[in-house]
Amino acid sequence: MVLAAAGSTLAFQQSAPQPVTLRLAESRIDDMSVDDDAVALFLSRRAVVGGAISLAATTLLGRTAMAAPAVLERPQTNQKTLIGEGKPFALNVKLSVLPEKRKAWLEQIRDNQKFTRKDEALQFSISEDVKTPSTFYLHQQYANEAAYRAHLDSPHARRYNEFLEVEKPFAAEPVSYFFSPLEEGPDWAVKKKRSVPKTAYCVTVNLYPKPAVREDFLDVIRANKKGTDTTEALALQYTFGESASQPGTFHFHEEYRGKEDGKQGFDAHAGSPHFAGWMKFVDTDPFVKPPEVYFSKIIEG
User: The domain 27-298 is classified under which CATH number: 3.40.50.11540, 3.30.70.100, 3.65.10.10, 1.20.1070.10?
Assistant: First the structure.
C-alpha cells in the first residue's frame, strides 16, 4: 500500500474554474457503483488496501468526474491550475469500452501512448480489469501540470480526441482522477521515465479518510509506501497523492511483478509487516465512505 505525504493539504482552490473543459458529458461520482467484491478484498488481508492506481485507471475530481485526458479541450490561459506550479502531476482514468470498439480504441490509445511516452510523460500505462473485459485503467505521470497541458495540445492527443468524437467507443463516461504524487522526493521533475514492464499486476485505489484521522492515515500510508519501495523485491511502483479538487481524497496506483502476471508480487505485498500495519489502521473504521479498489493487468504491444 502507498504512503501518503506530509500532513499539509495541497493548495487547491476548490471554487476556482477547472483548467480544462469537458467535451463529454459529466458524470457524478455518486453515480459510480462500488464493486462489493473489491471492497471485501480491500478489507481482507489479501486485499490491496492502500494501493495506488494507472492506465487503466480513474481519478476523482471531487463531486464530478472528468472525461479521459485526450478528450479534454485546451485550457484557457486565464484559468487557474489544477495543481500548484511545478508540483508533480498524475492522473488515473477508468474507461469502459464497447466490445465492438475495443480493437479500434486500443489502436488509438496505443498511438497516443507511444508519442506521449516519447516526448512528454514520465509514464503512460494501460491496464485491463482482471474480472471485467474491456474495462481499462490509464495511469499517467508528468513532471508538472505544464507538461500535461502541452500533451493535450499535441498532434497525437488531437488524433485521439477526434477518434473519440467520431467513433464514440465508450459504454459509459470515462472517469478521471487528477492528483499530485506525494513522498516521491525532490528530484521528481528531473527523474528518468519509469521503465515499462511487459506485464504487471496493478492496483488502483480511491480512499476517503475521515478528517479527524488525516494525520494518522498519512503516517500509516507513508510507512506502507516506504516498506513497499525499500523491502519488496517484486514491487515495481507505489504511487499515491491527494485529489486536485477534493482535499482529503487520495488516489493510488501500484504495480507488481512475478508469477501469474504479477499477482505473486501483490500477494507478497499483502503479507508484509507494513501492510499488516495498514490493516490494523483499517480496523479502526477510518473512512468516510468505503474505499474503491480495482485490480488490472498491464497490456503492452
Answer: 3.30.70.100
Amino acid at 107: E
Which residues touch 77 (CB under 8 Å, ≥6 apart)?
none
Digit-coded pLDDT (tens) for 30-87 = 333 334 444 334 333 333 333 332 322 333 222 233 333 334 333 333 335 566 667 8
CA dihedral in degrees (225, 229, 234, 240; nearest 10)? 40
| Percent of the chain that is helix, strand, coil (3-state, to 5) | 35, 25, 45
Convert the pLDDT of each residue in 287-298 to its tens digit.
999 999 999 999
pTM to 2 decimals? Answer: 0.75
Domain layout of the chain by residue ranges: 27-298
